[in-house]
Design a protein that fits this description.
Shape of chain B: globular
Number of helices of chain A: 16
Structural class of chain A: mainly alpha
Number of helices of chain B: 17
CATH architecture of chain A: Orthogonal Bundle
CATH topology of chain B: Farnesyl Diphosphate Synthase
Number of strands of chain A: 4
Oligomer: heterodimer
Pfam families (chain A): polyprenyl_synt (PF00348)
Strand order of the largest sheet of chain A: 1-2
Shape of chain A: globular
InterPro entries (chain A): Isoprenoid_synthase_dom_sf (IPR008949), Polyprenyl_synt (IPR000092)
Family (chain A): Belongs to the FPP/GGPP synthase family.
CATH superfamily of chain A: Farnesyl Diphosphate Synthase
Largest sheet of chain A: 2 strands, antiparallel
Strand content of chain A: under 5%
CATH topology of chain A: Farnesyl Diphosphate Synthase
Number of domains of chain B: 1
CATH superfamily of chain B: Farnesyl Diphosphate Synthase
Radius of gyration of chain A: 21 Å
Organism (chain A): Aotus nancymaae (Ma's night monkey)
GO molecular function (chain A): all-trans-decaprenyl-diphosphate synthase activity; all-trans-nonaprenyl-diphosphate synthase (geranyl-diphosphate specific) activity; protein heterodimerization activity
Order of helices and strands of chain A: HHHHHHEEHHHHHHHEEHHH
CATH class of chain B: Mainly Alpha
Distance between the termini of chain A: 44 Å
């Protein structure tokens, strides 16, 4: 069975119905399938976003959807896919993560790799540096830059998988048997470690110690960012930590911005671009990632039809901003008022938040970062790739 | 090298001879007795403080978790080998008694990679204690423990990158892959008896010996341009690493029988069939079924232990460890004589005779 066939069968193995996202290079699909409702959320992924991504993938020459899965699925020794299959029917988060990797979602999971490829192409070859002449270039991108894009996705996916580890002493009977969770944890740790090991090997092959240092430090940032996500997530009474928007920005940079920013910078380093170009790439990556995250945080508040049961993250940008405007005491009061018998009525709380300034403020912040990203792009020569990067920014900063 | 020793193992299966070593105060080098640990430590003063500096992050709880095992209480077996190997290679190359900063950094990196893998292993094995204290996962939970392991690994990678040598980076990233593959090998099991032993040795190499072998190789690369020396360093590390693990596996059976009270048999409880078990199975084929089901039925662990203690599994495994040690000594003896080279020879003897 070749890799493509395996990828198409994977959703069935994972016990999900529906089809994976449209692959533009596959002639058997004519229409774009929208995201299935297996997540319990109704989400209309805008055809516009898919179009932006599709166009971008054509520019870089191939679909980036399954970059980090290649090593997982083709490695017989680890046979991770088979191990994950054993989790079907359990409640372990790894299963959800695995499904998300195969399916498209609002947060197109292989976006980082795509951006790294685009910015590599947009920057073009470094002027007058002979040492790059040994690298082969396909579709305007060096093979080492393609490798870097894959490594970026590997690191991102590894931590995505590690985020799904479960604390055993917090399990409830509704989570199912303990041994399922233990097994799930085991596979999640090993899969994540396997992805990281592949990333490290890939980095070593690039034969560039500065790039290794950049990506290693990005990994360190990401780990800290994920740690913060865990720590500041709402406790039992839904009262979140008192963090202001500037702390939120720092933590979000760590968890969402650092990897893309440093990867973009590393892509420039590989092509031997100067410090100024590297910095512009860094700034694009950072600000684009921030606006993307804020956009994702805003979805529960800006979409027209949202089910009342749809939950949202109490540490997301609009909520943090809302709290800042309101003041801590009033915010806690609102949370308490929205609770009924210990359960939070998200619909009610959402209305309170929408009535405040948090949402509009978050939209402004999203656009602020979007503009900074566009500014950074101005120093790159106009090209298809640059336009694609601009389109990505436009797509994440628009709220109809 | 591996294949040669595998043939020896096949011989063991065939004729089951074993061999005593009488304890001896004289080392192979014939030199006066000195403590290799003390000798190695001379270059490692401040090792743990320096590791903690690499873990300097602002997030205080995460930092605390990551620093938890770098408290100076570990044996630092790996850094000591690395430090001694660095000197032995430098002296061999040009009689230099200087250790480069980058070589010392390898010692840090080796200890960090080792610790990161321990933190993850403890979550995988649901271990409650290590080195006499509670494990990171028991104190802070599994989610955070996994992140702490990732943090240590990332810090090690940054330190590795800063050395600025792409060959060394390649050598040590291989270790990271081997560690993961070793864990995967442990997840699976083999039907065929002969395959089992090869599988066990491969797992032992990947999980234990690879780190030591490649760290030794890395310091030799930094100290000396001769590929023959790199290979010597690698072979020493590999052989002593395997021996170390084999003895560890023996101690899991023998250290309990000397004590009153409940034996540990940690490996059996994890479903692992190590050297002593695999040898015992030769004499007691009824163990096969238990091995295949990974000692999961009630009473399996105790029965397996009894079989092992009745058999010569322990002696066989110890003999095998001796062979690996002899190989390590043979290799390192090719280097120019020095106190450090002799300390490395002594270390391999210490590996055999330790009792935890």
């Amino acid at each position: 069975m070749n890799l493509r066939q395996l990828l198409f069968r994977l959703p069935l193995y994972l016990g999900a119905s529906g089809s994976p996202r449209r692959l533009w290079w596959s002639p058997s699909f004519d229409t774009i399938f929208s995201v299935g409702s297996w997540r319990g959320q109704s989400s209309k992924s805008p055809a516009h976003w898919n179009q932006v991504v599709s166009e971008a993938e054509k520019i870089v020459g191939y679909p980036t959807s399954f970059m980090s899965l290649r090593c997982l699925l083709s490695d017989e020794l680890s046979n991770i896919a088979m191990q994950v299959r054993k989790l079907v029917g359990t409640q372990h988060p790894l299963l959800t993560t695995a499904r998300g990797l195969v399916y498209d979602s609002q947060n197109s999971l292989q976006l980082r790799g795509l951006v790294v490829l685009l910015i590599s192409k947009a920057a073009g070859p470094s002027s007058g540096n002979a040492s790059c002449q040994n690298y082969d270039m396909v579709s305007g991108i060096y093979s080492c830059q393609r490798s870097l894009a894959e490594i970026t996705e590997l690191i991102h996916t590894a931590l995505l998988v590690h985020r799904g580890i479960v604390n055993l002493n917090e399990l409830q009977s509704s989570d199912g048997p303990l041994k399922d969770m233990q097994f799930g944890n085991k596979i999640a740790i090993l899969s994540g470690d396997f992805l990281l090991a592949n990333a490290c090997n890939g980095l070593a092959l690039l034969q560039n110690t500065k790039v290794v240092e950049l990506l290693a430090s990005a990994l360190m940032d990401l780990v800290q960012g994920v740690y913060h996500e865990n720590s500041t997530s709402a406790k039992e009474n839904y009262i979140t930590d008192d963090i202001g928007i500037s702390t939120w920005k720092e933590q979000t940079f760590l968890s969402h911005g650092a990897l893309l920013a440093k990867s973009c910078q590393a892509a420039m380093e590989l092509a031997k671009h100067d410090a100024e170009v590297q910095n512009m790439a860094f700034q694009y990556g950072k600000h684009m990632a921030m606006s993307h995250k804020i956009n994702s945080d805003l979805q529960p508040f800006t979409k027209e039809k949202t089910g009342d049961s749809m939950t949202f993250n109490l540490n997301s940008a609009p909520v943090v901003l809302h709290q800042e405007f309101l003041g801590r005491d009033l915010w806690i009061k609102q949370i308490r008022e929205a609770q009924e018998k210990g359960r939070l009525d998200y619909g009610k709380l959402r209305e309170r938040i929408k009535a405040g300034k948090g949402v509009t403020s978050a939209i402004d912040l999203c656009r602020y970062h979007g503009n900074k990203a566009l500014e950074a792009l101005e120093s790159f020569p106009p090209s298809e790739a640059r336009s694609a990067l601009e389109n990505i920014v436009f797509a994440v900063t628009r709220f109809s | 090298m591996y294949i040669k020793l595998e043939n020896e193992v096949m011989c063991i299966f065939a004729c089951r001879r074993f061999h005593h070593t009488t304890p001896d105060n004289k080392t192979h080098s014939g030199e006066k007795y000195t403590d290799p640990f003390k000798l190695g430590w001379r270059d490692l003063k401040g090792l743990y403080e320096d590791i903690r500096k690499e873990l300097l992050i602002t997030t205080s709880e995460l930092k605390e978790m990551s620093e938890y095992y770098f408290d100076g209480k570990g044996k630092a077996f790996r850094p000591i080998i690395v430090a001694l190997m660095a000197r032995a290679c430098n002296i061999h190359h040009n009689n230099s008694r200087h250790v480069q900063a980058s070589q010392r950094t390898i010692a840090l990196i080796a200890e960090m990679i080792h610790t990161a893998s321990l933190v993850h292993d403890d979550v995988i094995d649901d271990a409650s204690s290590r080195r006499g204290k509670h494990t990171v996962n028991k104190i802070w939970g599994e989610k955070k423990a996994v992140l702490a392991g990732d943090l240590i690994l990332s810090a090690a990678s940054i330190a590795l990158a800063r050395i600025g040598n792409t060959t060394v980076i390649s050598i040590l990233t291989q270790v990271i892959e081997d560690l993961v593959r070793g864990e995967f090998l442990q997840l699976g099991s083999k039907e065929n008896e002969n395959e089992r032993f090869a599988h066990y040795l491969e797992k032992t190499f990947k999980k234990t010996a690879s780190l030591i072998a490649n760290s030794c190789k890395a310091v030799s690369v930094l100290g000396c341009p001769d590929p023959v020396v790199h290979e010597i360093a690698y072979q020493y590390g590999k052989n002593i690493g395997i021996a170390f693990q084999l003895i560890d596996d023996v101690l899991d059976f023998t250290s309990c029988s000397d004590q009153m009270g409940k034996p540990t048999s940690a490996d059996l409880k994890l479903g692992l069939a190590t050297g002593p078990v695999l040898f015992a199975c030769q004499q007691f084929p009824e163990m096969n079924a238990m091995i295949m089901r990974r000692f999961s039925l009630p009473g399996d662990v105790d029965r397996a232990r009894q079989y092992v203690l009745q058999s010569d599994g322990v002696q066989q495994t110890t003999y095998l460890a001796q062979q690996y040690c002899h190989e390590a000594i043979r290799e390192i003896s090719k280097l120019r004589p020095s106190p450090e080279r002799d300390a490395l020879i002594q270390l391999s003897e210490i590996v055999l005779t330790r009792d935890k």
